[in-house]
Amino acid sequence: xxxxxxxxxxxxxxxxxxxxxxxxxxxxxxxxxxxxxxxxxxxxxxxxxxxxxxxxxxxxxxxxxxxxxxxxxxxxxxxxxxxxxxxxxxxxxxxxxxxxxxxxxxxxxxxxxxxxxxxxxxxxxxxxxxxxxxxxxxxxxxxxxxxxxxxxxxxxxxxxxxxxxxxxxxxxxxxxxxxxxxxxxxxxxxxxxxxxxxxxxxxxxxxxxxxxxxxxxxxxxxxxxxxxxxxxxxxxxxxxxxxxxxxxxxxxxxxxxxxxxxxxxxxxxxxxxxxxxxxxxxxxxxxxxxxxxxxxxxxxxxxxxxxxxxxxxxxxxxxxxxxxxxxxxxxxxxxxxxxxxxxxxxxxxxxxxxxxxxxxxxxxxxx
Length: 367
Hints:
- This protein is mainly α.
- The protein has one domain (about 5-365).
- Helices cover about 75% and strands about 0% of the residues.
- The chain has 15 helices and no strands.
- Helix 4 runs parallel beside helix 13 (about 295-320) and helix 6 crosses helix 9 (about 210-225).
- The longest helix has about 35 residues, at about 45-80.
- It starts with 10 loop residues before the first helix and ends with a helix.
């Protein structure tokens, strides 16, 4: 195992987490100009933005949940479940509630002119249907993961540690073959998530399906916490991985147009494999190029929470202005991304950091 992986501060994971959060600006800005229906839409659209959205979706949240699982284990093993619950859960729940009530309500008010489905804030349907949640759904998932992890660490830590260590050891000794079993777990959990009944239209969806679907990535991150060698394994493009992926890709490219049931299943398998490959590539790139102390990434890591919470509102606000201009579609996109990032970064610098109250409400941090 590389010695830098065992260092106390793993810089590349902080950088990676902050970039994955900040990518929300690019993702949601692209929605404005893509061919799919979103909150607001530019009159002219481009397939480029639809492809960009699809690409980011493939790896962004899976990689984020792997990193979250790793830090969850590290924090629980270091401080225990009581301190973890007292610190980490409020850091998720408080900003979730405050952002949903304040920023997302303003966002919904702005959208009432552009969306037929937008609901008046004074109606019960707005609150019962969960219109206030918007881009904060993943925080729901984190609350579930953190609570379950805390309970398991509190009441079965020895058993959990034994299972985690054995599983991590098995993965490491498989010499990369484990990669080809991961899509099977992904597909299984996606199938289970489909079994969750949809709530009636007037009842809020608690993001249970997303919680189930993404849990495989969070658990993998926790396993990497049990054995740091697994974190190192994530970033190694060994021969088994490379050869296996090349063979699967070649087979995928030469599948017949009229597919049988077997070909369809293979298609699903490849589709589930790509997020894992992109996650591993993401880990490799950030470890190779960003595993050093950086003032920029240190600040961005601190600011990324604020940036994510506020960005959705400003993408819509600035987007409403830009879609009514005659500017080139790609120039509009660039302006939207830069304006949103600049505004949210300034909000963090001059409002959130300056006020202990706002720091707690929007970052969940005391003092």
